[in-house]
């Protein structure tokens, strides 16, 4: 199974505590997810801080209008520095997403590092090349713009 790696960086001109407060609240995922994904959080997580071992269930439409369930687990957290979520059930054979935050230059540098796999051998590789890789880029481009709208450039 081929594992793909992608990384995105963004400067957020706000204090670390404000940025961390937003991103460490899973209910805020709706605000940075494209509307066409029909992202719906099924777990009761409103106003609950993220913690290691937290399981979050969603419904999402990642590709071709097909609605799927997606379950992630918050694997690791270092307050104000990073957190890691991993898919337990969902559309990918593997999904490991690290969110890193570094206070610098009067704001926060945020880095998203994603490792994912499709599965299905050569068919999965073709699907990644034709569809999935571009869709992931679109999702994170939307997220970049949403973060700028929320926090400024």
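Sequence proposed for the structure above (153 residues):
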């Amino acid at each position: 199974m081929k594992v793909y790696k992608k990384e995105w960086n963004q400067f957020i001109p706000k204090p670390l505590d404000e940025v961390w407060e937003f991103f460490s609240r899973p209910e805020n995922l709706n605000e940075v997810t494209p509307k066409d994904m029909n992202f719906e959080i099924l777990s009761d997580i409103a106003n609950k801080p993220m913690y290691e071992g937290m399981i979050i269930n969603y419904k999402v439409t990642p590709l071709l209008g097909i609605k799927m369930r997606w379950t992630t687990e918050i694997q690791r957290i270092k307050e104000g520095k990073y957190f890691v979520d991993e898919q337990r059930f969902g559309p990918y054979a593997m999904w490991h997403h690290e969110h890193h935050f570094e206070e610098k230059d009067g704001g926060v540098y945020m880095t998203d590092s994603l490792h994912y796999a499709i599965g299905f051998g050569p068919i999965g590789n073709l699907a990644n090349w034709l569809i999935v890789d571009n869709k992931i880029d679109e999702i994170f481009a939307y997220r970049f713009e949403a973060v700028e709208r929320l926090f400024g450039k």
